[in-house]
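Sequence in, structure out. First:
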Amino acid sequence: MSASVERVYALVRRIPAGKVMSYGQVAALCPPLTARRVGQLMARALGSDIPWWRVVGSDGTLRTHRRDPMLAELQKAYLQSEGVLFTKDGRVRMTPEQVVNPATFEVELP
């Protein structure tokens, strides 16, 4: 596994329950990766110890819907069980209380 992939997984493991980050935020902390690549890595993380459900689109959309609507429902259920709030149209409320601020997100990465 490459160092940048390990960085992504290490970072996502440290997103606290009840908080989210966008694919772009994760990518910005793990150069040279792009938001799209982070999304691909989260798809590979299903069934692992990595809380993939805490990574969402920058507008709060659950991008897993593109892959499988049932997966998006699972993601929403996980997030709701952690106290994450949603808008009426089904997006995560991207408020400072729910989004990890990358500027203050301290994490030791490989």
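Second:
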Amino acid sequence: MLEVDKNTFGPEVLEAPGKILVDFYGDGCVPCAALMPHIHAMEPKYPTIKFCAMNTTKARRLAISQKILGLPVIAIYENGVMIDSRVKEEATPEACEEMIKAHA
């Protein structure tokens, strides 16, 4: 999974073609840490989607600009636009995989 930050988020997500999943997480976010291995495990199953992760603790302004106001957030972007997401309690491994399948 590609780790993006405030400097690489634009080129890797907003300016990149195709579908991109972004796992927004934060330092000390226990639900984020619990969800992350499940999301990482899905990456090989969906080769048509580029998987990225971003630590919002180090990029708060960018997170807010993407309307990331609670964690965890698993979002799918297409051609620079967020087209779907699962947030907080909705971000279960099962719900995230259903969303990924719908866009793969």
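Remark: The longest strand covers residues 19-25.
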